[in-house]
Design a protein that fits this description.
four-stranded mixed sheet, alpha/beta, 2-enoyl-CoA Hydratase, Chain A, domain 1, six-stranded mixed sheet, single chain, 11 helices
């Protein structure tokens, strides 16, 4: 029997969710997406949990969409609009927003596209200084998703977020820390320990006060990534119908530069 796509454990009031498909770079396959949603539900049902760490096995934290996999059942898809399918791709990762306790992304490896989106819906982020991070949607001929056009300007500031989103540039973890995208950039073998230290500090606080503080922070900001993700889904579904998107995916799979034509 195959191991679960997402491993779940709790110790010292800290839940650790580990993406467990390293051979597929922890891509957004159906089993990993549903496994994460199930783990989030388990966290929310466990009153003993005071902080959550999300990490991965292997060289990638999460490589984003797996363009080689066809998701869902074709019959079911007939009853979904294109933008609904686009939003559904990210909804499992967006379930992290429902976690009442603080969440930490321990990104031990590369995080690209929707994979980085999983990191930015967490409250804190620790990166691997030498791994690669970015939202490369435009390099695939695709409109960004996972609320990244909403979240990045609020996390990094507008000037840097505009540059990241419009270029689709991929940067090192060290550069991501300098740009304000992540809180810390560590050596690969120190990423999880740094996240655990942060989680320990949080878990040592009064649990109700910590939960209410997190709630107050985001309420004060008018935080609404889900609405942003739904808006993005409309544009992403339209861009997925273009020749440029087909060319972008082909170029990615063939490991060559894309030749976009604006149609």
């Amino acid at each position: 029997m195959a191991e679960p796509a997402v491993l779940y454990e709790v110790a010292n009031h800290v839940a650790t969710l580990t993406l467990n498909r390293p051979d597929n770079r922890n891509s957004m396959t159906a089993d990993l997406l549903s496994g994460l949603a199930d783990a989030v539900a388990e966290v929310r049902a466990d009153s003993d949990v005071r902080c959550v760490i999300i990490t991965g096995r292997g060289r990638s934290f999460c490589a984003g969409a797996d363009f080689r996999e066809r998701r869902g059942d074709a019959a079911d898809e007939e009853f979904q609009a294109a933008h609904e399918r686009s939003y559904a791709t990210y909804s499992h990762f967006l379930s992290i927003l429902d976690v009442e306790v603080p969440t930490i992304a321990a990104m031990q490896g590369h995080a690209i596209g929707g994979g980085l989106g999983l990191g930015v819906v967490c409250d804190l982020r620790v990166a691997n200084a030498d791994a690669r991070y970015g939202v490369n949607f435009v390099q695939l001929g695709l409109h960004p998703g996972m609320a990244t056009t909403y979240l990045l300007p609020r996390l990094m500031g507008v000037p840097r977020a505009v540059e990241f989103l419009l270029t689709g540039r991929i940067v090192s973890g060290a550069e991501a820390a300098e740009a304000g995208l992540v809180h810390y950039a560590e050596a690969e073998d120190a990423v999880l320990s740094r996240a655990q230290a942060l989680a320990g500090e949080i878990a040592a606080g009064a649990p109700l006060a910590v939960r209410w503080t997190k709630e107050a922070i985001y309420d004060g900001l008018g935080w609404d990534p889900r609405t942003a993700a739904r808006r993005e889904a409309h544009l992403q579904s339209r861009s997925a119908e273009t020749e440029d998107f087909r060319e972008g995916v082909a170029a990615l799979l063939e490991r060559r530069p894309a030749r976009f034509r604006g149609r």
